[in-house]
């Protein structure tokens, strides 16, 4: 069924708006995946703030013009499923990686983050990025470490004195 010009403009505008606010993009080929599998994928994507779109290649290339995902135009060949991570840059990569383990027909084609296109072989790099909460906890532990070490060092001086006096007392009691 043919899509009218106004519908095409609406699709391009919607995908462009999504791409402008997305943190990363993962492109996959979902040919051969069952309807139940795609339904499960879409459900999990909604739970993880990932926008999944299937768009004609020409419309996708037009929608990516002027965004940081313009670099993936060469990878848009054949049927493509676009996964936009909206809150966590690695969310779509983790979802697609887990889904491809369960479905042999699902194949990741390319990914892009920060205006740079990465090959499908680098999916693990993006998937292993920490979530926002994990990154904040790592940052806080790094910031807290010097203060903790300082307090431990300051506390060690009187502790060492007390242990020395206790050893002298034990030695005199034994004598």
Reported by name, the CATH topology of the largest domain is Alpha-Beta Plaits
Q: Please bin the fraction of helical residues.
A: 55-70%
Structural class: alpha+beta
Helical stretch tally: 6
What sequence of helices (H) and strands (E) makes up the elements? Answer: HEHEHEHEEHH
Query: How many discrete domains?
Result: 2
Give the low-pLDDT segments.
none
Largest sheet: 5 strands, antiparallel
Counted beta strands = 5
Task: Write out key terms for the chains shown.
alpha+beta, single chain, 2 domains, Alpha-Beta Plaits, 5-stranded antiparallel beta sheet, 175 residues, 56% helix
Structure, explained:
Helices cover 56% and strands 15% of the residues. It starts with a helix and ends with a helix. The protein is α+β, with helices and mostly antiparallel strands. It has six helices and five strands; from the N terminus they run αβαβαβαββαα. Helix 1 (5-21) crosses helix 3 (57-64). The chain has helices at residues 5-21, 35-47, 57-64, 91-102, 123-127, 132-174, and strands spanning 24-29, 50-54, 81-85, 107-113, 116-119. Strands 2-3-1-4-5 form a five-stranded antiparallel beta sheet, sandwiched between helices. It has two domains: 5-129, Alpha-Beta Plaits, CATH 3.30.70.1730; 130-174. It holds the Pfam family Ribosomal_L10. It comes from Mangrovimicrobium sediminis.
Brief summary of the model shown:
With 175 residues, this protein is α+β, with helices and mostly antiparallel strands. The protein is built from six helices and five strands; from the N terminus they run αβαβαβαββαα.
